[in-house]
């Protein structure tokens, strides 16, 4: 299905990722991992602000008391947008200088779920961590290559997870009280010609919207049947992540990347690295706030 109401925000990220909507601020946030840039876009006024960090900035999440939680290299920090104060919370894989955080989400209980990868993309080098209010990172999944998209069902009983090179969306049982997960099945297998699954969001109909890196779009998958039900076509090859925002959470913000594109590709796809907004008929859920 073509979605004609596509708006481009020219942000020219090298590796745009991790979009987040914070309703209280009326703002979308996203990161440019390699450049260490944090973008804040006020939807109503269309004002875009950028903050720079001398790190690989992988993740932005909503914390307590108006603070942001950022994944800088392998450290989680609390960041105050107003004062620009940074407070270190915890670190993972301190003895692996080539590793960094990748995608992160917060569950309904406020626990942070965040994965790692090797910047050399070594197979099996990454892990998925769960970080609760005690700030002790606990490994949930090991031997991951590119720990990526995560989503929960509305009833919190099911957790979906993507390890990008596998081209699969895995389904796990999820225990809300403890945050314990158990592998159930492969919910979706992505055909090779559609690229690699990256970031992911669930909608109010229980479908999964998945950014396809090398697949020029965001694809809507039915995790019950494993079938493709819709697609947002984009004028760039490397689509990295998506999230729902806006007043009714029916505006999707989509991040993209310039990495792994030759000079000639960038000429052909000049909007690579930009961010796109699209109004959808179905909405998504409010992002959860971390308990820290």
TrEMBL record:
The residues annotated as the active site are: 198 (proton donor/acceptor)
User: What's the cofactor?
Assistant: Zn(2+)
List the GO molecular function terms.
calcium ion binding; gluconolactonase activity
Could you tell me the Gene Ontology terms of the biological process aspect for this record?
L-ascorbic acid biosynthetic process
Per UniProt, residues of the SMP-30/Gluconolactonase/LRE-like region domain are 15-258
Q: Which UniProt keywords apply?
A: Metal-binding, Zinc
Query: What superkingdom heads the lineage?
Result: Bacteria
**Record's InterPro entries?**
6-blade_b-propeller_TolB-like, SGL, SMP-30
How the cofactor is bound: the record states: Binds 1 divalent metal cation per subunit.
Q: Which residues bind a divalent metal cation?
A: 17, 148, 198
- Tell me the residue numbers annotated for binding substrate: 100, 102
Keyword set includes Chaperone: no
Residue ranges annotated as transmembrane are none
The family note in this entry says: Belongs to the SMP-30/CGR1 family.
Quote the protein name from its UniProt record: Sugar lactone lactonase YvrE
The species this protein belongs to is Algoriphagus boritolerans DSM 17298 = JCM 18970
Tell me the lineage of the source organism.
Bacteria, Pseudomonadati, Bacteroidota, Cytophagia, Cytophagales
């Amino acid at each position: 299905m073509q979605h004609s109401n596509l708006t481009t925000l020219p942000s020219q990220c090298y590796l745009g990722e991790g979009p987040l909507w914070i309703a209280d601020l009326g703002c979308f946030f996203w990161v440019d991992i390699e450049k260490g840039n944090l973008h804040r876009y006020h939807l109503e006024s269309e004002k875009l602000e950028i903050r720079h960090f001398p790190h690989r900035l992988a993740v932005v999440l909503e914390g307590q008391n108006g603070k942001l939680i950022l994944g800088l290299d392998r450290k989680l920090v609390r960041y105050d947008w107003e004062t620009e104060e940074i407070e270190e919370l915890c670190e993972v894989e301190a003895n692996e200088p080539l590793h960094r955080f990748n995608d992160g989400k917060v569950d309904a209980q406020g626990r942070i779920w965040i994965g790692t990868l090797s910047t050399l993309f070594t197979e099996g080098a990454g892990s998925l961590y769960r970080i609760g209010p005690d700030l002790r990172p606990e490994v949930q999944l090991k031997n991951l290559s590119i720990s990526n998209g995560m989503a929960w069902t509305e009833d919190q009983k099911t957790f979906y997870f993507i390890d990008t090179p596998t081209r699969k969306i895995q389904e796990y049982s999820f225990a809300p009280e403890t945050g314990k997960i158990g592998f159930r099945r492969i919910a979706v297998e992505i055909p090779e010609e559609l690229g690699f699954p990256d970031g992911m969001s669930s909608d109010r109909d229980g479908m999964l919207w998945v950014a396809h890196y090398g697949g020029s779009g965001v694809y809507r998958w039915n995790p019950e049947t494993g079938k493709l039900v819709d697609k947002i076509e984009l004028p760039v090859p490397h689509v990295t992540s998506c999230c729902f925002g806006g007043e009714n959470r029916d505006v999707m913000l989509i991040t993209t990347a310039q990495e792994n594109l030759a000079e000639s590709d960038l000429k052909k796809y000049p909007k690579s690295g930009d961010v796109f907004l699209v109004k959808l008929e179905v909405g998504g859920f409010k992002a959860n706030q971390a308990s820290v």
